[in-house]
Specification:
The complex is a heterodimer of chains A (about 350) and B (about 850). Chain A has helices at about 5-25, 25-40, 45-50, 60-95, 115-125, 140-145, 180-185, 230-245, 295-300, 320-325, 330-335, 340, and strands at about 130-135, 140, 170-175, 190-200, 215-225, 250-255, 260-270, 285-295, 310-315. Chain A has about 350 residues and is α+β, with helices and mostly antiparallel strands. In chain A, strands 1-4-5-9-8-7-6 form a 7-stranded mixed beta sheet, with helices on both faces. Chain A has a two-stranded antiparallel sheet with strand order 2-3. Chain A is rod-shaped. Classes of the chains: A alpha+beta (about 350), B alpha+beta (about 850). Chains A and B meet through helix 5, strand 1, strand 4, strand 5 and helix 8 of A and helix 2, strand 2, helix 8, helix 11 and helix 13 of B.
Chain lengths: ~350, ~850
């Protein structure tokens, strides 16, 4: 083989490869062609092996030509590769294009019951003030539910709690969480800051604002210098935390046999903001809890000396708070467990 | 209590608007629940004067009248009443008027003569009970004036608390108004003009049971004529919510509402020999009460009787035999004080509770017995004529003086968090009629507590005052009561809002912590939390009661005992306390199926209840129920129906979220569940303690049918979880991730079909050696070439060591040990 022939062969190979590369339509075909031309046993190598038969003087010139051909061929492969990969990606995108406006795969979403959540929120707020949660039994003694709370048998105030009795002597379904006050006093020593959430029962026909089973949260704070002023300050803080800053509150006399003085605590109506509406009986206020200074009789039943210790208790209906939080107007919704209602509380 | 302001104003001046008054009373502790405009319904009813009253030319029973309403031509109005005469002023409903009950008045024609409106009776206006005659108005009422401006009233609905029986009256509330405004209270002038034979010659009263009747004051009025009360009296009673009856009966009700003293009146003719005996009933006695019900009397019932038998159930209801009737001419007035507890029990026993018994139950001051008797006699004589017999019969004329309650102004401040001077406190107390006297502390005892746990302490050297408590304030007994009066009169609004400055109690674990973690886990897995009633029907208990033995998790109370029954249930649907959650969850599913929902995943954390002897037991459980689609359908995917594995997966996830390792066994003999799809779960901690236990399965198809659950399958679980009753979340103990490569081996183990996978897995683990980390079942195969009684369980075993990569030989040896154990323990072989 002479120089001219080899050069011609190289250029012919180059021209052939250039046109073959231009003709490939797939990345895989291009890769195969590349191996065929540039691989170890590729055609360019075969041609170059002819260099060995040339005179020494000609070799550099052919080397230069061969190098130029290799560079040209590699460039063509490279360029075509980029082109083809782009085309293939484009084709893939075309093939894989979906209607992105369809709904996604449904994943079941759970929810937490607003009553349990609200009770939890109440506990959380008071825990910031050092209150800890205690719990008591729901099947209570008449003694703890009433008598130790300064409500002896035949006391006219018993009308405030229509009671469900059970077939165990001296037992009833607790009508409020207040018996927990006695249990906490027995279980701990002052200073006491306790919170008692739980289920309560009443002999009460069910309607939009009455339930035979409902939830309360009781609070108890006892020490040597705990005052009615402390109660008011704490309840103000609670109202802000629960219903938002700047909510006005009202502190007024109430009546419970187990507190003296007794308190009713109102917040500005969350519906009308205080201007008066049907939700608040046009008063602009909503009563959210009852409270008062623990009665000395109760302190004694709790084993504490009322001359030394004093403190306050408060009790609120969880449903009432949840009503205000979630704009619920009918207590029955909570226990009916219509999932269309509950699933809103995600 | 309903309080017509026009009536209240008789006893105290009120400058405030009704709304202002309502707010001030509420802030004083007399909560006003409503402000009602009485007469607001009378639209277009005005005062007219009858000019002429002629017979109707075509109807005997009708009159033809002309009426002036001040302006315009006189109106011609046809009227059916007979009590009318020219010159009278009467209410005229003009065409377009609307009367109570939405009765519309139009221009009409009666028997051929046009009538331009209607003359109204008291009943038509709902201000008296007289429906026969036209309401005759006072002659000085201005012609043409709207009736609502003259007779309209504002009625406050006051919620008087049980400890304030003294405020259940116009005078009682007038005292509260006075405490707010400082205006004086005007007592009615009680001036009884007496004549004739003294009462002592006509009436004797013997109290046989003075423990139940502290005082009985009797009065006698002779020669009364029974008729309706004056219109104004009827109006007041109606506005206050009582139906007018007759002048004598109304007088007693009027006195009760005016001063809070329940009064009973008897027809004296029905009382044998004028001899009244107050005594307990004897067994077998009967009485026909005013409501014409024959009542068998229990022997602790207090009676008003005469020598022949019972006349009335004391304080509760009169007897029909001595009732005031149209023919009554002689009236005996009973103004007595009965034992509150006895009245309360008797009222409950006969299911008779009235305005009167309500007041007796709260306790009455002895003084009022005398005043009420006099007032009633005065009003009977004024409204029904007759003569009041001189004197009273009085079984206990002694009237106790005011009680003294000692208090320390410093302790009042300590309770309230205030710094009120002694003088300020005395001034505030004076506003509610409580005078104060200085006391010598050294010789004074402070009553800290009364009632069932009384406590008194010496005042020592602390400044002490004596509060002179008016006789009607039976609620002020202890020092704290004085503190409340001081705060109440001053205004609770002025109690300073402080934050507690006392020491913070020690930390204590939060019993809601674990419950909240379980809730978060289940809600996070897509379940909706429900809260159901604890009271269910007895049938509920029968259908859903577990038949397999309960196993409780460590530290949790086991479910045991028989159901606790409510002795006075609201309905049979809520008569027992539930013993499990599954029935309640089934009810939720059922209700939602009826709403058209099909796919449900719900859970509840709640209590079960049981009785063991005289003990009540309560236990906490987590329950869940799944039905419909496990994976919901989407436009590009069909729904996957829920099955047992969904519930098992949730239970396993719950275990792992608490650091527990779940394991399953078949649950036999559980009637609530599908016999082939009932499992018992045991979740154990690293030390092997049972921290989660429960049943998971498909509800028995028979129960689906019995409970009318319109779904193919309901998968349920009820789990006892350590800590659910009030424990803390277990901590997480971590190990570093393995730094050396692990080796995996897959083993297909052929065993008899009835051998549970859990047994095979246990056999693998027991022989696994210390390098075995995890065992995962990844396939179950049955069919050729296996024999009919066989199946193949394919497990992936992962071996690793903390400090090196296990060698081939080590792993092979470990696998060989497993293979040998499989053969020996479960009779299985390895399928290659
Ligand atoms: Zn409002």
């Amino acid at each position: 083989m002479d120089l001219a022939g080899l050069t011609r062969d190289l250029e012919a190979l180059r021209d052939e490869v250039v046109s073959a590369v231009a003709g490939t339509q797939e990345v895989s075909a291009l890769a195969a062609l590349e191996v065929d031309v540039l691989g170890k046993k590729g055609r360019l190598g075969v041609v170059l092996r002819g260099i060995g038969g040339l005179p020494t003087d000609d070799r550099p010139r052919v080397g230069a030509v061969a190098n130029a051909v290799r560079v040209a061929v590699e460039e063509v492969f490279q360029a075509r590769g980029v082109e083809l990969r782009a085309k293939e990606l484009e084709a893939r995108f075309r093939a894989e294009t979906v209607d992105v406006t369809t709904p996604g795969r449904p994943i079941r979403r759970g929810s937490l019951h607003p009553i349990v959540e609200t009770a939890g929120r109440i506990a959380e707020i008071f825990s910031q003030f050092g209150f800890v949660v205690h719990e008591g039994p729901e099947v209570e003694d008449d003694l703890t539910n009433f008598q130790m709370l300064n409500i002896p048998p035949d006391h006219p105030a018993r009308d405030l709690w229509d009671t469900l009795y059970v077939d165990i002597d001296g037992k009833l379904l607790r009508t409020h969480t207040s018996p927990g006050q006695i249990r906490v006093m027995h279980a701990s020593t002052p200073p006491i800051r306790a919170l008692l959430p739980g289920r309560c029962f009443r002999y009460e026909a069910i309607d939009a604002s009455h339930a035979s089973e409902f939830f309360q949260v009781e609070g108890l704070m006892i020490d040597e210098g705990t005052t009615l002023g402390d109660l008011r300050g704490l309840l103000d803080q609670f109202a802000q935390a629960m219903f938002g800053q700047g909510k006005r509150t009202r502190f007024r006399p109430g009546y419970y046999p187990f507190t003296e003085p007794s308190v009713a605590f109102d917040v500005e109506c969350v519906v009308c903001g205080g201007s008066g509406c049907p939700a608040c009986s046009r008063s602009g206020w909503m009563t959210i809890l009852g409270a008062g200074m623990v009665h000395p009789v109760v302190l004694q039943y709790g084993g504490l000396d009322p001359e030394r210790y004093q403190g306050f208790a408060f009790g609120m209906g969880v449903e009432r708070i949840a009503n205000l939080r979630h704009s619920v107007g009918d207590l029955r919704l909570y226990m009916e467990n219509d999932l269309r209602f509950l699933e809103q509380f995600r | 209590m309903r309080v017509p302001l026009s009536w209240l104003r008789e006893y105290v001046d009120i400058q405030l608007t009704p709304e202002q008054l309502a707010e001030r009373l509420t802030l004083l502790g007399m909560e006003v629940k409503g402000v009602e405009r009485w007469g607001a319904e009378w639209r277009n009813v005005v005062v007219g004067e009858l000019l002429t009253v002629e017979p109707h030319p075509r109807a005997d029973r009708l009159h033809l009248t002309t009426v002036s309403i001040g302006s315009g031509e006189p109106l011609q109005i046809v009227c059916g009443a007979h009590n009318i005469a020219p010159g009278q002023r009467v209410p005229v409903a003009l065409p377009g008027a609307v009367l109570p009950g939405d009765r519309r008045i139009e221009r009409t024609e009666k028997m051929g003569i046009a009538s331009a409106g209607m003359l109204c009776s008291g009943d038509e206006l709902r201000i008296t009970s007289d429906g026969e005659g036209i309401l005759i108005l006072p002659a000085d009422m201005p012609l043409g004036a709207a009736l609502v401006d003259l007779l309209g009233d504002v009625v406050l609905d006051v919620d008087v608390k049980p400890n304030r029986g003294d405020a259940l009256s116009m005078l009682g509330l007038a005292r509260e108004v006075a405490a707010v405004t400082g205006a004086p209270v005007r007592w009615p002038e009680i001036d009884v003009i007496e004549s004739g034979r003294p009462v002592g010659e006509r009436l004797t009263v013997t109290v046989r049971d003075p423990d139940l009747c502290a005082r009985f004051v009797g009065r006698w009025v002779s020669g009364v004529r029974i008729a309706p009360s004056p219109d104004q009296v009827q109006m007041r009673l109606l506005a206050a919510g009582m139906r007018p009856v007759s002048n004598v009966v109304d007088a007693s009700n009027y006195v009760m509402l005016e001063m809070g003293k329940p009064i009973h009146t008897f027809d004296a003719a029905a009382i044998h020999d004028g001899r009244i005996v107050v005594r307990r009933a004897v067994a077998g006695e009967r009485i026909e009460t005013l409501d014409h019900v024959e009542r068998h009397l229990a022997d602790d019932t207090l009676l008003i009787a005469d020598p022949r038998g019972p006349l009335a159930i004391a304080g509760i209801m009169g007897g029909a035999g001595s009732e005031i009737g149209d023919a009554t001419t002689e009236v005996i007035v009973e103004s007595a004080v009965f034992d509150p507890i006895s009245i309360r029990r008797t009222g409950q026993r006969y299911a008779l509770r009235s305005e009167a018994s309500l007041r007796f139950e709260k306790g009455q001051e002895l003084r009022l017995a005398r005043i009420g008797a006099d007032r009633t006699a005065q009003l009977v004589a004024a409204w029904a004529g007759g003569a009041v017999a001189p004197g009273r019969v009085d079984t206990n004329p002694e009237e106790p003086r005011e009680a003294r309650v000692a208090f320390r102004p410093s302790r009042v401040n300590r309770l309230l968090g205030t710094a009120l001077s002694t003088a300020e406190q005395r001034d505030l107390l004076r506003l509610v009629g409580v005078a104060t006297e200085e006391a010598v502390p050294a010789s004074t005892t402070i009553v800290i507590a009364a009632g069932t746990r009384p406590l008194s302490v010496p005042a020592g050297t602390t400044e002490t005052l004596l509060a002179v408590v008016p006789t009607w304030r039976r609620d002020i007994l202890i020092e704290a009561d004085i503190a409340e009066e001081v705060a109440r009169v001053r205004g609770y609004e002025l109690v300073p809002a402080m934050l507690p400055r006392t020491p913070t109690p020690a930390w204590r674990p939060d019993p809601l912590e674990l419950r909240d973690a379980v809730r978060a886990t289940l809600a996070g897995a897509g379940l909706t939390e429900v809260v159901t009633l604890a009271l269910v029907s007895p049938r509920h208990g029968e259908v859903f009661g577990w038949s397999s033995a309960d196993i409780a998790a460590r530290g949790e109370t086991a479910a045991e005992g028989s159901p606790i029954t409510v002795t006075n249930p609201l309905s049979s649907e809520h008569a027992i306390l539930r013993q499990g959650l599954v029935g309640s969850l089934a009810d939720v599913v059922s209700a939602n199926l009826r709403h058209g929902l099909q796919d449900m995943a719900i859970f509840e954390i709640g209590k079960g209840y049981g009785r063991s002897g005289e003990q009540a037991i309560e236990w906490w459980r987590a329950g869940l129920a799944l039905t419909g689609a496990g994976d919901p359908a989407a436009w590009n995917r069909p729904a996957r129906p829920v099955d047992l594995d969904d519930a098992k997966g949730l239970a396993e996830m719950l275990c792992r979220s608490l650091g527990l390792e779940p394991s399953w066994t078949a649950l036999a003999d559980e009637g609530v569940l599908h016999p082939g799809r009932a499992a018992r779960l045991a979740g154990r901690d690293a030390l092997g303690a049972l921290c989660l236990a429960g049943r998971v399965g498909e509800l028995h198809p028979r129960l689906l049918e019995a409970w009318e659950l319109r779904t193919d399958r309901l998968v349920v679980a009820e789990l006892s979880v350590a800590g659910l009753s009030g424990g803390a979340l277990p901590g997480v103990r971590s190990t570093p991730p393995p730094r050396f490569q692990a080796s995996e081996r897959d083993l297909a183990i052929v065993v008899a079909r009835e051998i549970p996978a859990a047994v095979v897995e246990a056999a693998i683990r027991s022989a696994g050696g210390e390098l075995l980390r995890t065992v995962t079942l990844f396939d179950i195969y049955q069919g050729a070439p296996l024999s009919a009684g066989e199946r193949s369980l394919a497990y992936r075993l992962v071996y690793s060591a903390g400090d090196r990569t296990p060698t081939e030989q080590e792993v092979e040896a470990a696998v060989a040990a497993v293979t040998a154990s499989i053969a020996a323990v479960v009779g299985g072989r390895i399928r290659s």
